[in-house]
Structures
1.
Amino acid sequence: MKLHRPANRHLLVALVLLVLPFIIDSLFGHGWVRIADFALLYIMLALGLNIVVGYAGLLDLGYIAFFAVGAYTYALLGSPQFGLHWPVWVVLPLGALLACIFGVLLGAPTLRLRGDYLAIVTLGFGEIIRIFMNNLNAPVNITNGPQGISMIDPLHVGDFSIGQRHELFGLDISSLHLHYYLFLGFTLLVVLVSRRLENSRIGRAWMAIREDEVAASAMGINTRNVKLLAFAMGATFGGISGGLFAGFQGFVSPESFSLMESIMVLCMVVLGGMGNIGGVVLGGVLLVILPEAFRHGAGPLQQALFGAVVVDPESLRMLLFGLALILVMLWRPAGLWPSAQRRRELAPDETVAQQEQETVYDHSR
Amino acid sequence: MTTVADTLLELRGIGKRFGGLAALSEVSLHIRSGEIYGLIGPNGAGKTTLFNIITGLYQLDEGTFQFAGSSYARCKPHVLAHAGIARTFQNIRLFANMTALENVMVGRHVRTHAGIWGALACNRATRDEERAIEKRAHELLHFVGIQRHSNTLAKNLSYGEQRRLEIARALATEPKLLALDEPAAGMNATETESLKELMKKIRDSGVTVLLIEHDVKLIMGLCDRVAVLDYGKKIAEGVPEEVRSNPAVIAAYLGGEVTEAPRPQAGEGLG
Ligand SMILES: Nc1ncnc2c1ncn2[C@@H]1O[C@H](COP(=O)(O)OP(=O)(O)OP(=O)(O)O)[C@@H](O)[C@H]1O
Ligand SMILES: [Mg+2]
């Protein structure tokens, strides 16, 4: 089998992804399969934010709000909260649609803003959504306030619920594994959609706006529509991911949608490599796995080294996380795996003067 | 086929103020299909402001603006691009981190249709359109003579090549009127000469050209008609020979012969 043949490589990747939960399960234990599930949810989120930040260049600090909209839509329509138990295939798309609408609602008033101003307004929007979720329990109880909504229906199709283990093809497959496959499917779909958008007329328009909005509009791009499209697409991904999250956890509360979460997703995009799908996926994987590894590893490691737990693993985790961020930004400002375009953008300017010299002496024209 | 005498762009009594400064007042001009129309004037005369108005980047305060028979006052830039006015910028505004080819492909945006659904479905029509966009972009790079740089980032091109790339990108929008804001600025004599040939080629391909230029020699040898702005007012209009000997024009250019005016400074406002 020749590995450099794309078809063969895809086959190999597919095989690895298929057996991955079993490998993780046997090597690290069941808990890590759950972490892998979360990693997939975050990758979807990061890919959605990548459309807004990476392609269109619009800094959005309230992105987690769309995740919240998707999650609460699922929670309210599939839990004892209102006694509604709508089918998943209705609730998930509805959550995505609502998130998309919220994306446009947020986008519309910020169309004239850029950079810092846009960041601040979107940050405020994210907080508004969270505060609403927190306070919509009186006078009429809708969201159950800070207690959140529990006993949410598991993800299911008809009677087949992946909230429990199943006997499939003679294999006993646990709920976590089933979620892994479902989330993997959605993630691959999101990757495919991102790739198609990136290499399309719309994708080019997003990048043109990122590069120079005035020139883009003079070239006939309706900057308002194209920006709203970016917000809407990004929010849709967030909404889908949110719905899956609610079904997976069985519980949602406003706490899960804090500013810190928005920043975490942004870090995945920026650290991994803005505008590059592979980089964003890498960022998502790393930022889910590394903190968990610290959480599990830091205590025992300190025991072994110093005979006692000197620093609380939780604070050590944040400390190392901050340090890692600084190091990456110092050494690889365009991210760990940047898009070809971003790499060029953030690289020290290839001396234009030198280029100019070359062309002066180039009489081949 | 349009006849030369058709009016393509007609401006009447255009006024534009910035606070207390009247950047343009009572400016009227009409540009005929198929000509190369020159716009000259000292620094700060309002030439770029006029471009910004006809491309929708600024809104006019007074006057009327007709293009190809329809009125376009207070329209968004993309509407005017769609109507058929394309431009280049005095301070080059390329998509710096996109390749030359991608820059021109963006120019095709306004004449193509694939939306989000087309991109997602990636159907036959979308793929055909993408291929056509790329093909046309290659042709245009060839047309302006920088095809061998198609995969170079715009910001790594030489100054003259960037100016040509801006022209290719503007032509990609299939304009009826191409407005060039000092395309020869910063070019040497040889480069200017080949730029002149390029502009003739553009005119011969059926595109009307509106040209701002400080290089009077270039204007005289190229333009069918010339208008002169000074302090926001039109002080002369006519064939180049006429304008060159117009006393008001000579006075505007520091009382001397109309020769090389001082180079403009880069980095101001839009354009
Ligand atoms: N956005 C703006 N805000 C305030 N003043 C402006 C703005 N744009 C242009 N002006 C002023 O309007 C006047 C005309 O400027 P404009 O750029 O149109 O001149 P120009 O003829 O293109 O000159 P140059 O040859 O230097 O390019 C100048 O005094 C300029 O300072
Ligand atoms: Mg100017």
2.
Amino acid sequence: MENTSVKEPMVHTGSTNPVNSAFASHFAKSMFLTVSGLVILSFVATRMFTHVDLNLYGYMVGTVVFLAGFFYRFISWGERPPTKILIKKGLKLLFRRSTLKTSVEHLATYRFIWNRGVYRWTQHLLIGWGCVLAILVTFPLVFGWMYFTMEESGYYTIVALGMNVMTVPADGIIAFLSYNALNISAIMVIAGVCMALYRRLKNMQARAEQTFMYDFMPLYLLLFVSITGLLLTFINVFLHGNGHYVMSLIHQYSVIVTLIYLPFGKLAHIPFRPVSVFARNYREHYGKESMKECKVCGTEFVSTEQSNDVINVLGQNDLEFDMKDGFNLAELCLPCRRKYRISKFSGFATHEVPIKEANQDAKG
Amino acid sequence: MTKRRLFLELENCIGCRSCLAACTQCGGHEQRNRNYVYDVNPLVNRQTMPLMCLHCVDPACARSCPAQAIQIHETGAVLSALTEKCIGCQNCTIACPYGIPKFDEEQNLMYKCDLCIDRTKDDIPPMCASVCPSNTLQWLTEEEIEEKQQRHDLGNDKWVTSMPYLEGETNVKINLPGILEGTTKLF
Ligand code: SF4
Ligand code: SF4
């Protein structure tokens, strides 16, 4: 993308905790703990590595590379002052009663995207849930957390984390859904990506702003992964497995490339998005605690906590908006802040005239 | 390619609100305007002045955004929130010293002036400057802005394009009304 983000001064947090000082950095620690966790889970789930599917080896490498990229991005992101505050307070407020509802609306049903348009919601639902479904199936298979055995002819046993979960008839509906889960998810993703591509080609609003690397690349990657995945099924069913090996390699590489790309481009919003739940909790909780009144008109416009946090974050970036009139600009409600600026331009105290701002929506 | 800037000559404003209407029509603006027009002294006279994002060189909005949703274009324009990144915390609206970013509760999304980046990246004036009938909003080269400065320079430090009367260095330049400068306009 041609845009460059704001350069941030790095804030290093020295740590005296003995566990933390065993590692050179947050990055090393997160990496070590996660990879150990993965190995232990796989060890247990595969009954001490006796049920490892080595065809899936490429994905393991891909996952580890993805984790490295993810932690690298996440940690440098989390060190920015505003992010740090939000994550810290968000974690504290995680167990509010509304968390579940907000999470479902933000992360599962995408209500806010519905409000941006039904078309965009549909494409996002198809792509989002297609990917989630694929991940939920693929990763447990890769790390051996889930596999199928056929102990009795005609019946599959689904083994999850080393325990037999259920036995289903091989031609039954559950079995059908299980081994077609990836095909279904591929079709969902392809449909969603096609909708998204169509919108990007036709919609003038989208065309004005999009760039290849940022907006098209992730769509092509997802399309490539889904099509090569579906071709695997096609080869098995119609070509008696001819070319299966080559295609499975191509598919593996496409997945690995996507995983490596994921923490950096547009797809990075997938791992970062849950923070929107933090943001909602933060606003709701502190909003109930105490609201800030505008220093000019007295309207309550933001929580006291957030107002202070913003002033603090700006201070860390050497931005001080303390006025001679005895307030910080972050203590004025938005209309008063705009009128205050007009007063600076004109020399007349517009913000002190108790009249609502008129006609700001260009509707005549 | 000459790089031009938005320049505001505030007292020319006649309050027609063409700039608001034009803003709604820009690519990526989804029919919503992101600029403002204010009555300076609404109970007494009809003088109006426009206000829009001044595209700060060190933007408070982007600094305060936990999601890095506000990007700065290479032209210096401070862009509207990236739809997939904005997490709806509204820090930016509290941080901006001029109260510019708008927030849509339903869509959980901030939106603000992006200086019509699809136009200005190719040095085409933004929508507001394209339609302004009174020369309040202008799209000028550095030299032209410099020249305006000379014409208004009274040698008494009263010339104020942008600094020090704003909260920081901005990419959009502004003049003070001539009446405050103690001069009548020489059009
Ligand atoms: S004027 Fe406000 S919205 Fe515009 S760049 Fe500066 S801080 Fe951001
Ligand atoms: S509302 Fe969106 S753009 Fe504004 S600070 Fe929060 S995340 Fe950033």
3.
Amino acid sequence: MSDPAESFLARHQFLIYRLFSLSGLVPVGAFLVVHLLTNASILAGPGTFQSRVDLIHSIGERVLPIVEWAFIFLPMLFHATVGFVIIANGLPNVGSYPYVGNVRYTLQRATGMIAFVFIIGHVIHLHWMGKPLGGGQFDPHAASSSAAVAIQPALASALYAIGVLCAVFHFANGLWTLGITWGLWTSPAAMRRANAVSIVVGVALAAAGLGSLAGLQGLRGQKLDDARAIEANMHEDREARERLLHGGDRATSAVRPAVGAPVADSRGG
Amino acid sequence: MIKAVETNGHASNAEHDGGHVARRVRVRILRQDVAGGESYWERFEVPHEPNMNVISVLQKVAAQAKSQDGRAVAPVAWDCSCLEEVCGSCTMLINGRTRMACSALVDKLLDESEEIELRPMSKFPVVRDLVVDRRRLFRSLERVQAWVPVDDSYDHGPGPRISPREQEDAYPLSTCISCGCCLEACPQFTKIEVVRRDGESEADFVKRRKAAFDAGFVGAHAISQSMLFNAHPTGGMIAGERLETLTGQGGIQVCGNAQNCVAVCPKSIPLTRSIARAGRAATVWAIKKLFDR
Ligand code: SF4
Ligand code: SF4
Ligand code: FES
């Protein structure tokens, strides 16, 4: 107990745990919702998904990493770190007390850990930061096609399905416990109502997540070529707009390869 | 449903009376001779009687002081007092689940399994056999000042009125028997056993133990008692002090919402409602403190 780090944690345990709880909702949970709903737009066609991705990237390639770190990665790392401390201090006993609440308590911890590992893998696999490790396969200029190619292998899609479902359970169940933690719902009846809402949220998000995986699975053969064509067109449109806006100084930027050719490994536009 | 002992080769200890096999109750008890010592299993068999509970089995076990295989053994030690589920002293793990031994009926237990398994509570240090040291449970009640603070001999006049609605709300919480079932089943409440060091004075040891208890989770019972006394017009005069404890180390934030506590409480106290209310009060208290600084 004389360890200063430990006594700092001890003195601010309430604040840290409450920030932990809050961070699960905003920004981490909110990001999960936006992310899954954005992904689900693939079901409306590669063009729709591409325009959603473009919208996100329109905040600028220099600003985006700052936003990502400030509102996604760092809060997530904070949530995960405190989460691991909490898990280490608990003693699950679902074997002796197999009540629903206790099963959910245990699953909340298990899904949190699985989601954490999944997210690390997912970032390496698709986010450009993973490129040095042989990942970073998502190309924001070819959103659907690059994601489809990356996720279509059976093992990848199975792991994504598991990861997404764990993250969704963790969020939806966490929503319910967050309300108890902060005292939003206090009576058993209110807890039941809140539980119903959490289940609806969870099922909707799971549908969005699995739906987008299914949408990517469907992008094969001719459909994949069509997606690439759409993406290339949209990319050219964007480039043309850029040139108009910025005069000739952008004219040297990379030109998209022809339809059907392998997607270039470029992110800067 | 009562099960007779199977008449296999060595079931010779089944007594015959009046031509039919007398029923026997078999128990397996996790024993421990001294605090901090090794624990070991020992089996006992006692004659069955109608309407037996686990305490009456233990009384017979102590009276015969003989294990199932006929060895003379030290009588098993356990705690009990009221025998009607109000004193809270007879908590133990019966067939793996925390509950009151005095209200655990043998016939029902034998429906679940052929043999009854008894273990001491796992979240408190064992003193001997089924007797545990539940000091921390009471220390938690001290931490949250689970009382109405009128400690003088002056006449303060009649106390404030409490509406029937408030009484109805408070009554269930006041039925807590300090049995510790809620703590035993809580995955967030883990055992704290402080052992006296060589050469450590009694005073130093007590101080160290208290500090260890005060760093640990207060537990569902204490959270619920805080809500009981905070809702009381006179008890609520120190509501802030209780919330200070509940937002301190080992406070309400440690609860992981497993809701085992409410499931095992022998008094069916709405513990999760108390916990959520304490969560709300803690939220308000923390925000108020932030702005009142
Ligand atoms: S709800 Fe909280 S106090 Fe009750 S068993 Fe779960 S973690 Fe423990
Ligand atoms: S709240 Fe219930 S389980 Fe906990 S000590 Fe009181 S009576 Fe026992
Ligand atoms: S002996 Fe009092 S509660 Fe069991």
